[in-house]
Amino acid sequence: MRLRLCAAVGRSAVLVVLAAATAAAQEPPTRVADIERAQAEKAGALHPYQPGKVEAYMNEAENLLTAGLRVHPFFQSAYSGGGFTLGAGYRHPVSAYNTVDMRGSFTFSGYKRVEAELVAPRLFRRRARFSALGGWREATQVGYYGTGTANSKSDRVNYGFKQLYGIGVLDVRPATRFVVLRAGVEASQWEQTPGSGSVPSVDEVYSPEALPGLGRTIAYAHSHGMLGIDTRQAPGYARRGAFYGVTFHDFTDLDGQYGFKQVDYEALQHVPLLRDTWVLSFRGAASITGTKSGQQIPFFMLPSVGGGSSLRGYGSWRFRDRNSLLLQAEWRIVVNRFLDTAVFYDTGKVTAHTRDLNLQDLQDDYGFGFRLHGPLATPLRIDLASSHEGFSIVFSSSAAF
Predict the structure, then answer these.
(1) What pTM value is reported for the model?
(2) Where are the chain's structural domains?
């Protein structure tokens, strides 16, 4: 009896063990096992990411806006106010980073520009950039309305000029990241010529005694130095950061008649809102001149406000005098990675004396604009501006500020 009982207990134990093993084999795998199996399946199906057609076109456009083309459009006029500009250039690499860019442009009003520029962007362990620019340009109908702001559009006369120039500029960022230093020298020859167009030429209304520099050819040795703080990603396009700088100019007339000094002050601030989808941008700028002993400032070298990057609701070079003040504000709205829109307001003035650089009797305008841009540059800007003198459309190949 006892043997049969032990045998029965043994068979029962074996059956329990077999049942447990069968149940364990039939249980679903754990979550860890599920994850491991899914990862193994994905690893076997991995392949490089392939962007869609739209994204591929967007990436190609960004590369062009960032790196540029060897053969490229060039829309910079010989001088502001020349009208719609056509031009092209050829950029040739001379080393891993250095390039030579040969370019030219013209307008239907007779403005012409031909120049070549050598750019070395990575000197002194990427802390410096050097450019050497040489060329020739001609403008045929630049507006002159008289000095100050107490004049009207009907006072306009036109003048022209031809200029041969050579410029060397070195930009340096020392070990302190945001400090910017600039030094430059320029040799140029200005030949002031009669104006063309639908309004009288400047020499038909003014005499050389009344208007300094009229009809003269002046050779300048121009040197300048700038000290600034720059926290922007790039001057050509920025959604955040600031620039505060002062630039000192010395214009030496080789004949000793039209030499002068000039100091330019500039402050920019970009304030991003809503994760950079809105940007409030502000600019203040002032220029102050001083003559050298016994010399005068040519009328075409006086500081001015008016045109595509200052008072956009007025004609180019609309107001001129010994000193100038400009204040600008923009509310920029980011549409996508290449397009911004903006609502803007500009105000400013020119004065004969520095004591009058205040907020009284300012000229102003307002408007709306579109900007086609890359990460570092703004190759196309269209602004629609209105002032008490009328409506203006601005086409530009650079940022307003």
Answers:
(1) 0.82
(2) 72-396
